[in-house]
Design brief:
The complex is a heterodimer of chains A (637) and B (246). Chain A has helices spanning 15-22, 28-31, 43-55, 93-103, 110-130, 162-179, 245-252, 316-320, 330-342, 359-365, 367-385, 440-461, 473-490, 498-513, 519-539, 551-575, 599-602; strands at residues 35-39, 58-62, 80-81, 155-156, 183-186, 189-197, 200-208, 214-218, 221-224, 257-258, 263-269, 292-296, 313-314, 354-357, 394-403, 406-407, 420-422, 496-497, 540-541, 604-609, 618-623. Chain A is an alpha/beta fold. Chain B folds into two domains: 3-111, Beta-grasp domain (Ubiquitin-like (UB roll)), CATH 3.10.20; 117-245, Fumarate Reductase Iron-sulfur Protein, Chain B, domain 2 (Orthogonal Bundle). In chain B, the strands form two sheets. A five-stranded mixed sheet of chain B has the order 2-1-5-3-4. The model of chain B has no long low-confidence stretch (mean pLDDT 97). The chains are: A alpha/beta (637), B alpha+beta (246). The interface between A and B is large, with 80 and 74 residues.
């Protein structure tokens, strides 16, 4: 596997401009002769499909939801970063670049991150022009707020629904192109495999989720915008349908998978109410500004929290981190909460949460001030738990919600398979080992609106592809492999549901490959996952017909791929003998319990290559070079 | 808690549907409505039966996937929530619950509780956008939007496209959905150049899809998970009249 990132020469602030000039172009009259497949219709996918349609390419866009407007980008709450410096508070492209590199714990690629920071300003322009109703000041100018990991106010937002509004902007641009006949949309259609002809990505095999029909779509290039894989964990904040299948199948066809173990946990989610629940709801981290986190000192203390006296409470973050207290970084706050729950001091009916208490803040500031600041979050909490957080402390627990790892891509966002591109959360490129708040939306849109429309032309102009159709032997072969795989699922033992297997796998992953990892746990995962996987293929119960709307079959297909991904994640987590960002190896921590990086041995991207069924994947590395920034240790002191 | 469910089952778009009765036993009052259905489905699977098909995804009330008529009310008895945010503590032990899909000619049933809402996408295709190609946008703060306008626009833009407004309307009208998008853009300077054309085309498409007309019942704003106001329908009608006269 050749890992050539193709970073353009020259000073960092000139690389993208220079590259744009040096890239090959497709003549306007020739663009209509090329076709591009986009899988996924979230921020990255919808933006890419719309923008490439505008340029004149023939685009086919696929999503598994019933409408492209429902992709999970819609659930992002907080905001989107951009280096506009509207507040005159010292922001700049350089500063956003540096914050993102540092936030990623120096495990991302400089040139990509710089380009992201540069493009951030264009994104806001584009979204405003589309009519995204961003928050405004009374004078009519755009409003900003500050967000974690930054000392400037650079976050643009639309109430607590920024993801929704940005996605609707991209969706509307997409619908405009659908109406213009430049994009054909295939909703309720799931990609199940990738077709490669002469070493180049030329198509995908899909299943129509309404009818069960499997068929092949052909194009000159394929763009995967299929999101992240946090749902490998049973508990996560991802939508129920989010899955790894598209990028996983691409991996099995030869695309490198980078840093699979880099996953991010969000510290303030509502704890699970029973084992029937796998989707957890995230609440804005801003709650930690005024809430105090504590647990009873005594294990299994089921007294009413208000009746537990001060001296019997442990405000553990304030005790361990006097300087940052309840505002300690996400990973630290998360791990410490797990520690308390593991030690039996968890609270609530399942003893699976910690208190986030507003009693002091209400006394200090008044109930009205708290309602003004957090009213909508308090309402949401009350609706879900049936408890009133003004009177009873909230219960919170961390949950996985973003994956920094993904398909390896070069500077053009192309994977190791020529003609196969990965954008948005599906690739690995910009967030290193940890993503900062309000950066996911930025990356999805930068990739979709501005990068892929430019780099796809460079690829197409420089590539000669033979004309093929779905009757090509390569298509037939992949289609038949997919059909065999799905027949096996339908004909397995029928004794245990896919959800029940998923619960077991996903809980194992949460326990041993979640917030904190160690050699023993990871080694045990590597022996337990294959055993469970074997049982899955023997016993899984999928009723009904494959040629029909069959939601059990959809779940089973996705769980089957999560099994394989889980193994690779564990392998990568075991291999990376350091702690960095969201990857915390208990063996590698400072005395204060902070992540201890090992730049000597691990200042690289780990890229895994599929080596055949049952064979150990091969690891390659892309060394990371830092020329524009000075590498430093993160510190919260 | 123990419940009796009367659920609409329909094997395909052309098949005849019927209500089937299921016992939902030992359901936690903390479960959401959809989690209750998950539990029922797991049990159906274990006894070799076909689970109930229903649409869902984000389960936090923003994607607009879920939606069913619960005891005659779209999204159930709570105001301002989607089905996924409805919790079982809202019901009593021993309750019987009737669960149906959205009912509207423009929303044909695909299977059980899953309906085809692609008509809503086609209304957006007719003009629910600002035609600005990527790269041609001016500097963001060159377009000033008074805060009250931005807020009013956002109130309309919050629509999640679930279709509850259609399901609850005696005429199965999509007026609230269509008006929300028209108003979102009509209240912003960016939406002005295409304002007339947008309203003419979107309203025409709404009619073409087989949605009924608005006769001011107002049930839609009560059923709307985002509580979008019927005032926006008035705004749409005003825009429509003006555009027709111009």
């Amino acid at each position: 596997m050749r890992l050539e990132a193709g970073i353009p020469d020259g000073p960092i602030h000139q690389k993208w401009q220079r590259h744009r000039f040096e890239m090959k172009l497709v003549n306007p009259a020739n663009k209509r002769k090329y076709s591009v497949i986009v899988v996924g219709s979230g921020l990255a996918g919808a933006a890419a499909a719309a923008s490439m349609g505008e340029l004149g390419y023939n685009v086919e866009c696929f999503c598994f939801q019933d409408s492209p407007r429902r992709a999970h980008s819609i659930a992002a709450q907080g905001g989107i970063n951009a280096a506009k410096n509207y507040r005159n508070d010292g922001d700049s492209v350089e500063r956003l670049f540096y914050d993102t590199i540092k936030g990623g714990d120096f495990r991302s690629r400089e040139a990509n991150v710089y380009r992201l920071a540069e493009l951030s300003v264009n994104i806001i322009d584009q979204c405003v022009a589309q009519g995204v109703p961003f928050a405004r000041e009374y004078d009519g100018h755009l409003s900003n707020r500050s967000f974690g990991g930054a000392q400037v106010s650079r976050t643009f937002y639309a109430r607590g629904q920024t993801g929704q509004q940005l996605l609707l902007g991209a969706y509307q641009a997409l619908e405009c192109q659908i109406a213009a006949g430049k994009v054909r949309m295939f909703p309720r259609t799931e990609m199940l495999d990738l077709v490669i002809v002469d070493g180049k990505a030329r198509g995908i095999v899909v299943r129509d989720l309404s009818t069960g029909e499997m068929r092949t779509h052909i194009a000159d290039a394929v763009v995967l915008a299929t999101g992240g894989y946090s749902n490998v964990f049973y508990l996560s904040t991802n939508a129920k349908g989010c899955n790894v299948t598209a990028i996983w199948r691409a991996w099995r066809r030869g695309a490198g998978f980078a840093n699979p173990c880099f996953t991010q946990i969000h510290p303030t989610c509502i704890p699970q109410s029973g084992d029937y629940q796998s989707k957890l709801t995230l609440m804005s981290e801003s709650l930690r500004n005024d809430g105090r986190i504590w647990v009873p000192k005594k294990a299994k203390d089921d007294r009413n929290p208000a009746s537990i006296p001060e001296e019997e409470r442990d405000y553990y973050l304030e005790r361990l981190y006097p300087a940052f207290g309840n505002l300690s970084p996400r990973d630290i706050a998360s791990r410490r909460a797990k520690e308390q729950v593991d030690a039996g001091r968890g609270v609530g009916p399942g003893h699976n949460g910690v208190y986030l208490d507003f009693a002091d803040a209400i006394r200090r500031l008044s109930r009205d001030v708290i309602a003004e600041r957090y009213g909508n979050l308090f309402d949401m909490y009350a609706r879900i738990t049936g408890e009133n957080p003004y009177d009873v402390p909230m219960r919170i627990y961390p949950a996985p919600h973003y994956t920094m790892g993904g398909l390896w891509v070069d500077y053009n966002l192309m994977t190791t398979i020529p003609g196969l591109f990965a954008i948005g959360e599906a690739n690995f490129s910009d967030h290193g080992a940890n993503r900062l708040g309000a950066s996911a939306l930025m990356q999805g849109l930068a990739d979709g609106y501005f990068i892929i429309p430019a780099t796809i032309g460079n690829y197409l102009a420089g590539t000669k592809s033979e004309r093929i159709d779905a009757s090509h032997p390569a298509c037939r072969e992949v289609e038949s492999e997919v059909k065999t795989r799905y027949r096996r699922l339908m004909e397995a033992g029928r004794s245990r549901t896919a959800t029940s297997f998923y619960r077991e796998l996903g809980m194992m992953m949460l326990d041993d490959c979640g917030m904190a990892r160690n050699r023993k746990g990871l080694e045990s995962l590597l022996s337990r996952i294959p055993e469970l996987k074997q049982k899955f293929w023997k016993e899984v119960n999928v009723p009904g017909e494959s040629a029909d709307l069959n939601q059990s079959l959809e779940v089973a297909g996705r769980v089957a791929d999560f099994f394989e991904l889980a193994e690779l994640m564990s392998l990568d987590a075991l291999d990376r003998e350091e702690s960095c960002g969201g990857h915390f190896r208990e063996e590698h921590q400072t005395e204060e319990g902070e992540a201890k990086r090992d730049d000597e041995r691990f200042s690289h991207v780990s890229v895994w290559e599929f080596a055949g069924e049952g064979a150990r994947p091969k690891r390659h590395i892309e060394p990371l070079k830092f020329e524009a920034v000075h590498v430093a240790q993160r510190s919260y002191k | 808690m123990n419940l009796t469910l009367h659920v609409w089952r329909q094997s395909g778009p052309k098949a005849r549907g019927r209500f089937e009765t299921y016992e939902a036993k030992e359901i936690s009052e903390h479960a959401s409505f959809l989690e209750m259905l998950d539990v029922v489905n797991e049990r159906l699977l274990e006894t070799g039966k076909d689970p109930i098909a229903f649409e869902h995804d984000c389960r936090e009330g923003i994607c607009g996937s879920c939606g069913m008529v619960i005891n005659g009310i779209p999204h159930g008895p709570d105001r301002g929530v989607a089905t996924c945010q409805l919790h079982m503590r809202r019901f009593k032990d021993g309750d019987a619950i009737r669960i149906e899909p959205w009912r509207a000619a423009a929303f044909p049933v695909r299977k059980d509780l899953v309906v085809d809402r692609s008509a809503l996408d086609r209304i957006i295709q007719a003009g629910g956008f600002v035609s600005v190609a990527t790269g041609s946008a001016p500097e963001a703060n060159a377009i000033l939007v008074p805060k009250p306008d931005a807020e009013k626009s956002m109130d309309a833009a919050e629509c999640i496209g679930c279709g509850a407004c259609v399901a609850v309307c005696p005429n199965a009208s999509a007026s609230l959905f269509t008006a929300a998008k028209i108003s979102h853009l009509a209240l912003l300077p960016q939406g002005q150049p295409e304002r007339d054309r947008r309203v003419l085309r979107m309203v025409a498409q709404m009619d073409e899809e087989g949605f009924g007309s608005c006769t001011n019942h107002g049930a839609c704003q009560n059923a709307c998970p985002k509580q979008i106001s019927v005032d926006y329908i008035a705004l749409m009608n005003g825009d429509l009249r003006r555009a027709m006269l111009r």
